[in-house]
């Protein structure tokens, strides 16, 4: 054991055991390999980057080779957008040029009267009184809005509060006058017709959901000669009555006459009376008493009678304030133009009114008025040349 532990082989005399080979340190070898590998991988990265750069055009162009129809359809869609914008601009300039040409020409006396004669309904559209006046006959056999049956006392009080009840001096026939009836249709939105509308002699507007003017002057104009209102639809903002000559009440119930008396005399209605309105009504309108009138119910009644000839419905028809305003304009003016008229039911997503974002399909919910009959009636007026549809939606 001692001999083995001392490294002497007892069987071979004194020959020592062979030396154990000492392993070569691996640190330097690994370092050399690492440097070599880094050069190798670096060259691979450069190659891969070069391939990627060369591959980018191929990647972006491969749909052209494999899906040419995709590119063709995209280009076609883009061309449609450009063509739609071009069409819109063309219509826009055509509208403004047409309006400018109409205003630049001289007013034609008795134009509407002469062009109404060929229409079968023309006999019902002549010589209709516009405002209710004292000591003038009023159809009492029908209830409002087609007559004033049951409202005699209310009417007497309202007329007593009016300094004037007939046509204002500025509206009485003299020189040739041109009328503009401003509708509330969405077709007016973006028209930029406001400055043209303000140039007409008489501008008639009618209330529908307050139908604002202030804030929409660019498209709807700023002047108002006659504004047809009812209590629940009268604007609450004083700004909406700026540049307004006459506010005319359309009577739908006896209480509407009491409201007018209250507004003129500045004596508020009782709490009980206010409960009978279907929405909150304004207490004050910033105009003088001589700026108020009452619409003669014959305007509503006669308009309804004409519409019955265009409608499939039976019985007395209540027209919209828009159609009634057109008939009123025919009594007051030699030439009549319309802007913002026409409901395009073929495009339910189109804007319904110029002052709000409600869409056209909302009209399907209303059942009071026969919009289709009114459109046919107005189209006949346009076709006969009795009125001009400036915005072209009829």
TrEMBL record:
Question: Annotated Gene Ontology MF terms?
Answer: lactosylceramide alpha-2,3-sialyltransferase activity
Q: What EC numbers are recorded for this enzyme?
A: 2.4.3.9
Alphabetical UniProt keywords = Disulfide bond, Glycoprotein, Glycosyltransferase, Golgi apparatus, Lipid metabolism, Membrane, Signal-anchor, Transferase, Transmembrane, Transmembrane helix
What's one GO BP annotation on this UniProt entry?
lipid metabolic process
| Region (Disordered) location | 1-21
Q: Which GO terms describe its cellular component?
A: Golgi membrane
Task: Return the InterPro entries for the record.
Answer: Glyco_trans_29, Glycosyltransferase_29, GT29-like_sf
* Topology with respect to the bilayer: Single-pass type II membrane protein
Catalysed reaction per UniProt?
a beta-D-Gal-(1->4)-beta-D-Glc-(1<->1)-Cer(d18:1(4E)) + CMP-N-acetyl-beta-neuraminate = a ganglioside GM3 (d18:1(4E)) + CMP + H(+); ganglioside GA2 (d18:1(4E)/18:0) + CMP-N-acetyl-beta-neuraminate = ganglioside GM2 (d18:1(4E)/18:0) + CMP + H(+); a beta-D-Gal-(1<->1')-ceramide + CMP-N-acetyl-beta-neuraminate = N-acetyl-alpha-neuraminosyl-(2->3)-beta-D-galactosyl-(1<->1')-ceramide + CMP + H(+); ganglioside GA1 (d18:1(4E)/18:0) + CMP-N-acetyl-beta-neuraminate = ganglioside GM1 (d18:1(4E)/18:0) + CMP + H(+)
Which residue ranges traverse the bilayer? Answer: 45-71
**Looking at its record, which EC class is this enzyme?**
transferase
Q: Which locations, inside or outside the cell, does it occupy? A: Golgi apparatus membrane
- Keyword Signal belongs to the record: no
Q: Residue spans with biased composition (Polar residues)? A: 1-14
Respond yes or no to whether keyword 4Fe-4S is given for this record: no
What function does the entry list? Answer: Transfers the sialyl group (N-acetyl-alpha-neuraminyl or NeuAc) from CMP-NeuAc to the non-reducing terminal galactose (Gal) of glycosphingolipids forming gangliosides (important molecules involved in the regulation of multiple cellular processes, including cell proliferation and differentiation, apoptosis, embryogenesis, development, and oncogenesis).
**Which family does the record assign?**
Belongs to the glycosyltransferase 29 family.
Please give the name of this protein.
Answer: Lactosylceramide alpha-2,3-sialyltransferase
Task: Name the gene for this chain.
Answer: st3gal7
